[in-house]
Amino acid sequence: MIEFGTPVFWLALLQIIGVNIVLSGDNAVVIALAARALPPHQQSKAIFWGSSAAVAMRIILTVVAVELLKLPALKLIGAGLLLWIAVQLLLPEEEGEDGVKMVSSMAAAIRTILIADLVMSLDNVIGVAAVAKGSMLLLIIGLAISIPLVIFASTLLLKLMERFPVIITLGAALLGYVAGEMAVTDPLVAPWIEAQAAWLHTALPVLGVVVVLATGKLLASRAETREEERPLVELTAEQAAEPRTGEEITMHKLLLPVDGSAASLKAVDHLLKMRAWYTDLEIHLINVQHVLHKDVGQFIASDEVKKYQQEESEKELAEARVRLDRAGVAYQYHVVVGDQAGEAISHFAREHGIGQILMCTHGRSAAADLLLGSVARNVLQHANVPVTLVR
After folding, report:
1. Distance (Å, whole) CA 345 – CA 379
2. pLDDT tens-digit series, residues 155-190
């Protein structure tokens, strides 16, 4: 049993919070989307009661899972499930099919929130139960901290994980490590391991990390190859200028990715400052929206998901459009959906005959490139046209 206040306790608490954040981001989006169609005065009530019921249900399920994992062989099964969950984290998401109608009442919204959280939280429950190692105190504290964080900061968390994909990779590695720890402590094999192969206490968790990262990378590369052959999903093709005809269609096309951050707006400012150099250009703004979990489509109508993504994109494009409009620069703007922003940008450039990509990145140090330059680095790796990076 893990004792309160020990280094092991605090490490496990951080692991529980990390598992919840990595595995629960889209759950909170479902909560917000389920209440979208309600009158404003009912939205907050639906979110409160739906979230409260979902949190209570998740705590109960996790407590039950902790008890069940004390039975022989169940930890081995749970370890296998965790490895599968971890590998799935590293694969590109696919949009779910539209299998529901729009929510029209508060009761329906609460029911949707509850059922969706139940279905989408099973991986979360298994992961948290494994990290808790039988400590109810650790379990309660961890859930009490992380669940409100996920509910109230869902959009921020999704954007953070999209901008810094290393978070997803670290989360998958953590689950692989926990799976290895879970396997060696199963009552069915623990006595033998303790007596004959104590080295497995260290080797299996490390092996779990290696298996998850290697398998995830292999399957993800295959999925990306198939994805490149599919047409890119584009939510809009809105134009801020009249369509060009005749010889003007052959004009050099410049693609300017915008995510609403101050960094991406530096590229817009660079374009405006260097307008004398960028003459006779067909300028295209692009905003990439994150693909929501494939289970979202089981509970939220696809039209509602698209409206949500469209509204988010309009917020992120707003300042860039204001600056270009103020300067009298004609442009077209596009919103696409992709699991990895860098690959979606490169894919769009290939499909639309873009001649150059102009975007912003941060410092050139290894640490900055790993964390802050991930999208730009991905574009450089996948684009087949010149890429100009603005610091």
Report:
1. 7
2. 566 667 666 777 788 888 888 898 898 889 888 898
